[in-house]
Design brief:
alpha/beta, 17 strands, 335 residues, four-stranded parallel beta sheet, five-stranded antiparallel beta sheet
């Protein structure tokens, strides 16, 4: 482990984009910071996967103009951002007049809630408890949505973006997500070199401050000192610790003193949706338009148009990809 003459002011646990950004901001503010990461690489969900003699981005690939903090970070570290075709389709296709009208009513209601909710405190919205108990699919069913409309909204929102089935997704939670800047169909921006290049750039700015292969087991706070325990038996100390890990990993760690009951309950109940991402490399670029389908969001790679990608969330994540049917040609490699 990298240790200076004295303990750092802060330790960041996790070298995904969130942890690296936190450490970068702290370092720029004059804080002596150290990052520890369990994996042998930085980036977290941002990493490249080989498919044949090419690669594709496994996660964090697309973002939008509303992601102001991420765009600001890109400017700070001189990462070039380019405009690209949107992720998926803008709306469910082939809806009849009645379904079309209900879908537009649904969009209007979600938009109205998103314009009023504070994403940091959605519980403050009037009637928040009732809205949190209402699901997206439930709202549609109560208004007579047809199976075709329910399937189309599932493909657009759950399968192509959020990864949580619409029958389980809170109306309030989804509105708060949109209010925070999420855009399920308008993700038009990409980093040149991908998010892995951004992770590498941030790690480079933190040269000598990132330690890989250091799995954290827990934390102990005693006065103005926080002790970070590592799986290898070593310990680190700092005045502050930033835990930049998924909630499902945080609940496996030991905290002394214990976290507040509300936080323990939140960690115990936290869940993420199911998602899969696959790609196929073709001899020639397949003639496939971006689409939100029941099988997932289908689109061509911006960096290599010969790569066709399927991102599938919710129940579609478990479906096998039939790239030959999607592209009308046999792929050279699939990953």
């Amino acid at each position: 482990l990298v240790r200076g003459a004295g303990r750092p002011d802060a330790i960041v646990v996790g070298a995904g984009l969130s942890g690296l950004t936190a450490a970068y901001r702290l370092e720029r503010a004059g804080v002596d910071v150290q990052v520890v990461e369990a994996r042998a690489r930085v980036g977290g969900r941002a990493w490249r996967i080989p498919v044949g003699d090419a690669t594709f981005e496994a996660g964090c690939e697309a973002f939008d103009h509303e992601h102001h903090a991420l765009r600001g970070l890109a400017r700070d570290v001189a990462m070039e951002v380019v405009e690209a075709p949107p992720w998926g389709a803008k709306e469910p296709p082939e809806l009849n007049g009645e379904d079309r009208g209900l879908f537009e009513e649904f969009e209007s209601e979600i938009g109205r809630l998103a314009s009023h909710v504070d994403p940091a405190h959605p519980e403050d919205l009037e009637d928040a408890e009732r809205l949190d108990g209402q699901t997206l699919a439930g709202w549609l069913v109560e208004r007579g949505a047809s199976p075709a409309l329910l399937a189309a909204v599932e493909a657009l929102i759950a399968v192509g973006s959020s990864t949580v089935p619409t029958r389980e997704m809170s109306l309030l939670g989804y509105a708060a997500k949109l209010a925070a800047g999420a855009a399920p169909t308008g993700l038009r921006l990409r980093f040149v070199g991908g998010p892995t290049a951004l992770a590498a750039r941030l790690a480079g700015e933190l040269e000598g401050r990132v330690t890989l292969g250091a799995a954290v087991t827990g934390f102990e706070q005693n006065g103005d000192t926080v002790t970070v325990g590592l799986a290898e038996g070593a310990v680190l100390e700092a005045e502050r610790v930033v835990v930049a890990l998924p909630l499902t990993l945080q609940r496996t760690l030991h905290f002394d003193p214990p976290l507040p009951e509300s936080r323990q309950r939140a960690l115990a109940e936290a869940r993420y949706g199911d998602a899969s991402k696959e790609a196929a490399l073709f001899a020639e670029a397949p003639d496939v338009e971006p689409a939100a389908t029941p099988e997932g969001a289908i689109y061509r790679s911006d960096e290599n148009p010969r790569i066709l990608i399927r991102f599938a969330g919710a129940e579609a994540a478990g479906l096998p990809s039939d790239f030959s049917r999607l592209a009308g040609a046999e792929p050279r490699a699939v990953a």
